[in-house]
Design a protein that fits this description.
The structure holds two protein chains of two kinds. By secondary structure, chain A is α/β, with parallel strands linked by helices. Chain A is 48% helix and 11% strand. Chain A is globular. Chain B has two domains: 146 residues, Up-down Bundle (Glutathione S-transferase Yfyf (Class Pi), Chain A, domain 2); 106 residues, Rossmann fold (3-Layer(aba) Sandwich), CATH 3.40.50. At the A-B interface, α1, α15, α17, α18 and α19 of A face α2, α3, α4, α5 and α9 of B. Bound molecules: iron/sulfur cluster.
């Protein structure tokens, strides 16, 4: 079963990974199809909302306010959750979070856990950590189950198996569940998963979940999902362990009114999530006997301290930015080398790794702005991308790095642009330098070095004999300036 | 207010209203053209077309000679320090302009989205004030026609089958919306065909096209296919940077389909049909 994880130290750069993934035509077809379908559904249920823009603004403001007072709301959450019988744990980083969860599972006396889909547990590589101490984790979300059984990696934050089509899923189930006659209709696959999972739900005594929202005012936790398998994991086990990033807290119960409209419409194109589970601590006659929640930092407070990047933490993980992204559409999620792919991954991943890796990700965007337009909490992703690019350039141009070809070219260009005389000279020189590369018909079909990427699939028309300013001057109407 | 006073003030107001309406009709703008570095060097015909259209409408075009580049490439690639002096240069060249017209939606977006922040980074109070003062007078070419001048018909003639590509910056940062298409619809002789997935990026993205050449190409491939499906003779847009990228593939693939900036379409007239 799947124990592979994205290893930040080993994953190739986006450019390299994307290049090889672009050759996987089946995967690209699956991604195009799936994102088109979800986008289409989203558009219908968003366009029907007269107050969608106000809702987005409310969502943004609630998140901004919460992040400004994060310490306050976290303490309030801890207090209220504890009062209701939950046990709150704090983890500085992924390793600490893993250790706490592993410890709690051991204490629960179980060597198996059932899991709700949770990107946070993927972020910290929890399954691998559990397996190392002899605890087996069963993923119960259909898409996560496919990933786990296929020994694969998630490629999307809402639909982790988005890159697989039905036939491929059927093959995985046939093999792993030993069902040689399995059909490939959605109902067949769902039935196979149900039979497989039911037994686990009824047998396994410990559950592990993530969280969509932590409600400071009540100490409650909210998980939204479409399948109902999450509800099983939250209610049937004796011990429930939830792990959440500290940014998941919201001030009031009433704030859910905003987010439970924004999230399902953006994520799956549903008006409401079929299952919205909210629980507060433990209850003597129902649900788990003991409830633990691990609140994890893992670089989030570093992001919080960065004025220009802070908005990254407002993300409610709806995946809308992934579905609309024209880059993700071509490469799929694995190119990003992280459980967080697409535009949100491009800004979140390098920051979670404190800019020690993932430096190619802020460049994995044409800055088209489609992500910003659909984001339900109005995260200006292009703005954060540009901010992170600056950080990458600062890293890359330190010491001898200042001599890298790109930096030198950029510096040279800047020199030209700061003087009219130099700029004009460069325009003239460009025409001359280009001449050997221009063919008879007036086109450049090959460029050297950094610019070679251009002529891989594109021609470039030759530079005109006269620049615009030369023409304008000739015309004798230049402003006196 | 006494009836008498009201009557007088009303008459005075009417007098001035007529005066102002006449004056507005007579009013010819002195437009400062910021051509942008790449249009200047690679697409002079676009600049000529802008001049032609604006002069045909009765306005005067001036060209501050010290202009170079808006700084977009540096800023968006992460070279912020290199971009900062270009902001000050732009402001010094254009701060007294009545209106600045720029035939490149991404350069205008660069200014609207980042110039104020850049001025704050520099920390020069005067510069901040100048930027705040200047930005409302900066227009992308098509929005200058539709929003500032309130025009839809600029008296153009262009007898060709054309499709319009909405550049991302024009579409999302500037909110050009239907503006450019309304201008095109009023062009005599034109056969306008809509492209599928109008809002999907063509994959240019400045240095992205070189840094992530393969992904950019894949995105371009989808756009080129969509253009070919329209069976248009040419593809127009408010941004030559997208068009240069699209033209590059249309030419490499020997499709025979051409690209042309919106200004060049609007510059066409019956006497001098392009
Ligand atoms: S960044 Fe915005 S659109 Fe993307 S997943 Fe987060 S909330 Fe959704």
């Amino acid at each position: 079963m799947s124990l592979i994880t994205f290893d930040p130290a080993r994953v190739p750069t986006f450019q390299v990974a994307a290049k090889s993934l672009l050759g996987d035509t089946q995967m690209r077809k699956n991604v195009r199809h799936a994102t088109d379908v979800i986008q289409g559904k989203r558009k219908i249920v968003v366009d029907e909302m007269p107050d969608w823009q106000q809702l987005r603004e409310s969502g943004r403001q609630i998140k901004e306010h919460t992040l400004k007072h994060l310490d306050h709301y976290l303490q309030q959450f801890e207090e209220n959750c504890t009062k209701a019988g939950g046990v709150v744990h704090w983890a500085r980083d992924a390793a600490e979070a893993r250790a706490i969860v592993i410890d709690l599972v051991k204490q629960s006396g179980s060597n198996e856990v059932i899991k709700i889909k949770s990107m946070t547990t993927e972020e910290i590589g929890l399954n691998k950590g559990l397996e190392a101490v002899g605890v087996h984790a069963y993923e119960t979300d259909l898409a996560e189950l496919i990933i786990q059984m296929g020994n694969d990696l998630p490629s999307h934050i809402v639909v982790p198996a988005l890159h697989k089509n039905r036939q491929q899923i059927r093959e995985i189930f046939k093999r792993e569940m030993n069902l040689p006659n399995l059909g490939d209709k959605p109902a067949d696959l769902a039935e196979a998963a149900r039979t497989f999972l039911r037994e686990k739900f009824l047998r396994v005594k410990t559950g592990v979940s993530g969280a969509n929202f932590l409600i400071a005012e009540t100490g409650g936790v909210c998980v939204t999902e479409s399948e109902g398998n999450g509800r099983m994991c939250l209610t049937l086990p004796e011990t429930l362990i939830t792990i959440a990033g500290v940014e998941k807290v919201i001030p009031r119960y009433q704030d859910l009114e905003v987010f439970l409209q924004l999230l399902p419409r953006s994520a799956t194109g549903e008006r409401m999530n079929p299952y919205n589970s909210i629980w507060t601590g433990v209850h003597p006659t129902d649900g788990p006997r003991s409830f633990h929640i691990v609140l994890m930092d893992n670089a989030r407070t570093k992001i919080l301290a960065d004025d220009e990047a802070r908005q990254t933490l407002a993300c409610i993980r709806c995946g809308a930015c992934q579905n609309i992204c024209p880059v993700y559409r071509q490469t799929g999620g694995h190119a990003y080398g992280s459980v967080y792919a697409g535009p949100i991954g491009a800004i979140l991943t390098p920051q979670l790794q404190e800019m020690h890796s993932g430096q190619s990700l802020p460049y994995a965007s044409s800055l088209c702005g489609a992500c910003y337009e659909v984001c339900p909490v109005k995260i200006n992703i292009p703005e954060v991308l540009i901010h992170l690019r600056h950080k990458v350039v600062e890293q890359d141009t330190q010491g001898f790095g200042a001599l890298n070809p790109e930096a030198l070219a950029m510096k040279a260009m800047a020199m030209l642009f700061t003087s009219e005389r130099r700029f004009r000279a460069a325009q003239r020189m460009g025409r001359m330098a280009e001449r050997p590369l221009v063919n008879k018909a007036g086109w450049v079909t090959w460029l050297p070095g950094l610019l070679g990427g251009w002529t891989q699939v594109r021609d470039l028309h030759e530079m005109p004999r006269q620049t615009f300013r030369e023409w304008f001057e000739q015309r004798g109407a230049t402003d006196g300036k | 207010m006494a009836y008498h006073d009201w009557d007088v003030s009303n008459r005075v107001r009417n007098y001035f209203r007529n005066f102002f309406v006449d004056a507005t009709q007579e009013h010819r703008l002195r437009v400062s053209l910021f051509i942008t570095c790449y249009n200047d060097t690679l697409f002079p015909d676009t600049g000529k077309a802008v001049v032609q259209v604006l002069e045909r409408l009765g306005h005067t075009v001036v060209f501050p000679a010290g202009q170079t580049c808006c700084g977009q490439m540096h800023w968006n690639t992460g070279y912020q320090e290199e971009a900062l002096p270009l902001l000050a240069r732009f402001v010094s060249q254009f701060k007294d302009a009545e209106a600045v017209v720029i035939p490149s939606s991404s350069c205008v977006a660069m200014m609207r989205e980042h110039y104020l922040k850049m001025a704050e980074k520099i920390g020069d109070k005067q510069l901040i004030a100048d930027v705040e003062d200047l930005l409302p007078r900066v227009w992308e070419f098509s929005e200058f026609l539709t929003k500032k001048l309130g025009l839809t018909d600029v008296g153009a003639y262009f007898p060709h089958r054309v499709t319009y590509h909405a550049s991302c910056h024009g579409l999302r940062s500037l909110g050009l919306g239907d503006g450019p298409v309304t201008l095109l619809r009023s062009v005599k002789g034109i056969q306008l065909v809509e492209i599928k997935n109008l809002e999907q990026c063509c994959g240019f993205g400045g240095t992205f096209a070189v840094k992530n050449a393969e992904v950019s190409s894949a995105m371009l491939g989808e756009k080129v296919q969509a253009i070919l499906n329209t069976q248009a003779e040419l593809c127009t847009a408010c941004d030559n940077s997208c068009l240069m990228h699209i033209e590059g593939a249309l030419h490499r693939q020997r499709t025979g389909v051409k690209t042309l900036h919106l200004a060049e379409v609007l510059a066409g007239t019956e006497s001098g049909a392009r």
